[in-house]
Sequence to fold (418 residues):
Amino acid sequence: MSPDAVCREVSHSFIARDIYYCIGCYKIVVIVSRMGTTDYRWNRQNRCIIPQPWGAYRGKVRSKIPIHENLCRIRVERSNVLQPEMRSIIPVRIAGVGHSLPSKVVTSKELDHWLGFKPGHLEEVSGVISRYVCEGEDQIGLAVAASQLAMEEAEISKGDIDLVLSACGVPYQTLPATAPLVMHRLGIPEGRAAAYDVNATCLSFLTAFELAANKIAAGQCRTALIFSSEIASRALPWKEQPDVAALFGDGAAAAILTASPDGKSGIHASHFSTYPAAYDACEIGAGGTRFDFHREPEKFAHHAVFRMDGKELFRITHRHFPRFVEQLLNAAGWSLSDVDLVVPHQASPLALEHMIQRTGLEAARVVNIAARHGNQIAASIPTALAIAWRDGTISRGMRILMLGTSAGVSFGGMAIEV
Fold:
């Protein structure tokens, strides 16, 4: 909750000195000093709420607070670690999940043969045994198939959905957004839902999940469809970085979110952090406004291929990710032993091994599909989630961590009780 939202919530009569309580992840400190009734607004520079005359600031006043004791100020502080009684849950339920894969499977042994490597080379350097690759399928078709499965599991109709979020790392085309086309292909009635894209590369599903959950909790929508669909097998650097190119595979997954009927299911914490100094470490430079295809066709073509600096990404992850996971657990009020299952981004089999070692997670409680699916960009996390749900690895009431990294470079995670 933002400081402004905190101010709107502060409408209590304070009769004690130095009261501490919490709204969301902000701690409210009330210090008594003067009697009266006044208004308060958020002061961004000094990070406090200051008294204002009634009617001042032409609508910027946030809350009228009746004062029964001497109130000097209300201070709002960000609290990274909250006491259990201070924590709140976003009551949202994963009502259904589904995933869709291309029919063709390409093994690393086949790639070794085609590229002239000795047998076992690409599997050794990438850890990926096989991956699914589109031939006749396309990104929209995969998204529709995964969404239909999620809708069937959730037992909802097309008319029940009022929010459609595309959470793809790479869109179907530059303009328009991908979500409206999937909404149309699903047959959701015109004007029934809002449909738009959320892009945080490999963390797109988590960011869309958080957005949808908050909109449901705020009463702005009732049933949200989130899908991630990726054709990751294109624009790969087979000549320059075959070990990187061998990491990727295609696929799609979707989830239906609704309000939690009993209030037990929900997000206990979500946390995102970005380290933009390594912005260029993982990129496809062409396709946006950076290079003009008509004026700079050679530069456009050169930057139309995926490139990754694995050493730089490893350095950042090695240094910061364990602390990130610790912060997420603290925000949820959980310890590692409280976590029933971890559903991570499937960056690579080797990256998953490193994450397990650095964070202290038990390998048996980590969903690992990277060796048989490869890195599906944003579809990795929801595909792993859907497979674990289908196999019975996930059941209601379990506590799950969804974790990931993305180009940019960002870390993201959620602590969820399903």
